[in-house]
Design goal:
Elements (H helix, E strand, L loop, with lengths): L2 E7 L3 H12 L7 E6 L6 H5 L5 E4 L4 H15 L4 E6 L2 E3 L3 H12 L6 E9 L17 H6 L19 E4 H7 L11 H11 L3 E12 L17 H19 L1 H22 L4 H14 L14
Parallel strand pairs: 1-2, 1-4, 2-3, 6-8
Antiparallel strand pairs: 4-7, 5-8, 6-7
Length: 302
Amino acid sequence: MKIVAVIVTYNRVELLKKCLQAVREQTRQPNDIIIVNNGSTDDTTEWLSEQNVITYTKENNGGAGGFSYGIKKAYNYGADWIWLMDDDVIPQNDALQQLVNTLVSLGDKQEKVGFLSSEVLWTDHSIHEMNKTYFLDDQKKLDKLSFPTDSNLPFIQFGTFVSMLLSAKAVEKVGLPIKEYFIWCDDIEYSKRIVANGLAGLLVKNSVVIHQSPNNNPSNVFYDPKSSIWKFNHGFRNEMYTKRLHEGELSFWATWVHRMFLLPLRIAITRKNDRWPFIKMVWKTTWNSLFFHPVIEKATTT
């Protein structure tokens, strides 16, 4: 079983150092480590030149572009499984071993698994609110899985790139994450696509990683600062396209109407300041979602 770790980084060299050290100290180490450097302008490039890892430095296409690129490289590198994570993730030293143990315990059934997700905690060891997983209880979706539903492992609706062990068979079947997303929703859309194609997503609770984000609050259009609007410009559009792909036109249009007419009113009532910039962002992203039709790229060997 060849496992290639893929770490995407941008201008966080000190966090990257901790992440890479934790990966190197795993009780079951990956066979190779790929670091995708999204055009960092700090000391990342210089530091990486001294490390014994496979490094690709490219223009900054955000986390979505970085993971899409890294998955393609790992797939073409002959990986059976690809361990994905951000540069601010510190996996406990047996995190990968626990994922591998789960695969081994599944035997032949691992062929029906698209991805395994670790339990993601914040620095105080509480559940990380932005990386929560939700159990899959939609019977129609469960019936589409080729994985037997008597498993003791929880089926989940989607996973997170904070720590995901991705099957090369899933990459072959569904292609790559949508790099045009830039940030936000790329992992949700991608893992939902995998599940929709009949491969199971499972949560492995004893595989634990610490996500060292600045805080443990989910992004919120009613309270986030104005400086975060650029993220919402991507995220709100991406949410709409993900809804269109995975929930259909009726759900898409219902959300479209809500965001054009009701959400701005709620922002005007709830926000204490910067109401108008956020309202304009909602209108802009909702309108742009009508014309956003990125192509899903296949991961072909080179």
